[in-house]
Amino acid sequence: MSFTVVHVAAPGLEVPYVAAVVDCGGTWVRTNLVDAGFDPTQIELRAPVRLVTFPVGTDDQGTTAIGFGFAPYKTDGVANEQR
Amino acid sequence: MNSDDAWIVGISMTRFGKHPDKDVCDLGAEAVHGALSDAGIALSEIGLIAAGNMLGEHNFGQSLQKQIGQTGVPVINVTNACATGATALKTAIMAVKSGECRVALAVGVEKIAGAGLLVGGQSVAGPATWTPSGRHGAVAGLDGRVGTDTMPGVFAQVGMEYTSRHPGATFELFARISEKNHAHSTLNPLAAYTKRFTLDEIMNDVMVAYPNTRSMCSANCDGAAAAVVVSGATLRTLDPDQRRRAVKISASVLATDPWVEGCHALPDISTVTRNAAATAYEQAGVSPSDLDLVELHDCFATAELVHYENLMLCPPGEAVPFFESGATWRDGSTPVNVSGGLESKGHPISATGIANIWEICHHLRGEAADRQIEGARVGLAHVIGLGSSAGIHILEKSA
């Protein structure tokens, strides 16, 4: 549905990152768009995406936190989600 | 002049910008003294004070009284995000309309010059060891990991959602809206920024959250604004000169989000604004085509475009051609943000919803000097506070 490439964010957050709102069959989901690059002219509105997980960070005990995001859906398959 | 009418008889704003040598009470007192002087009304006649301040100490209104005078009248402290100023004004209007008092004062002040990101600006550095907490056992906040909390990012997505339905809403078009507002502010001596920017300068400025560059974001600054409101019955008792400069409040509307299917993964600033606008036009008995000028909540350039439709200044789906026609420039058919708007005049949060009223009143009174919209008789002022609240006031020149 929508996205933005955030360049200015809180200290400690890696920028840029792509924030997006994804339409999951009528339910809008707030998310990050991953593996899509950071060039807004190369990110297509309403293109299909797929759910992925990605590491958010690792603490001093070596534990990695996992978050969810959506990535461009690059095959010819059918996908319901659209960004 | 029905007894349940409400009128603005005095209004004032400080210069917006950096005021390092003044605190919120200094700025508030300057605006209040200006409004009382403009009204020709003494503080002793004020029967109620509605005071707005978001980011300072609690009970700002009582602190302000210690500077302007402790008259013992009720003080209502209001906060409503970016709609705080409009909410203070509406509170004063309700007070005089209900007969609670004859004369009420609304004041809004903020000191945020150089504040940076107001939401999503705090460091995300957590404990060195992930510790699940809260109802979801999260080890970290959402901001930047599951979407963005930053205001430039949220409103960028509002604009891009419009773009997804109307591809004509490009980065360049959003930048042109900012170009307009910065050009308008060159005529406003009270604006935080009065420099005209070229389209190239705006598009090549620091990118904050695509498509909003720095100059397309509202300017954090210090400022205050205040208004004196009276009932129609009280107005009849005032001098002819006070009556001549009085501005009629034809509509005063505050709306919140209605129930909708689904959730607000992205704040819906459109439905709440449309609902408030529909109520305001009905209350005032005016149509969008009657408006001589509009001050709308351009907290980001992306927001201004969607509000052209939300305020029904153009038909649904036609915001892009409406803007491209030049309609919203100061010499267009529906001048929008001739003050410079939040992007250039500035956005000291709680002052904004009274300062936009000040701008409209100035034109309706024929006192806007170099930036006067000739023959202005009807104006609309709009704000939105995320959460959300939309505040709309429609004002008319005294007959």
Automatic annotation (TrEMBL), chain B:
Domain Thiolase C-terminal stretches: 270-396
Superkingdom, natural source: Bacteria
Cited CDD domains: SCP-x_thiolase
Pfam families: Thiolase_C_1 (PF22691), Thiolase_N (PF00108)
Residues covered by the Thiolase N-terminal domain: 8-114
Membrane-traversing stretches: none
GO molecular function, one term: acyltransferase activity, transferring groups other than amino-acyl groups
InterPro entries per UniProt: Thiolase, Thiolase-like, Thiolase_C_2, Thiolase_N
Listed name of the protein: Thiolase family protein
Organism: Nocardioides marmoriginsengisoli
Lineage of producing organism: Bacteria, Bacillati, Actinomycetota, Actinomycetes, Propionibacteriales
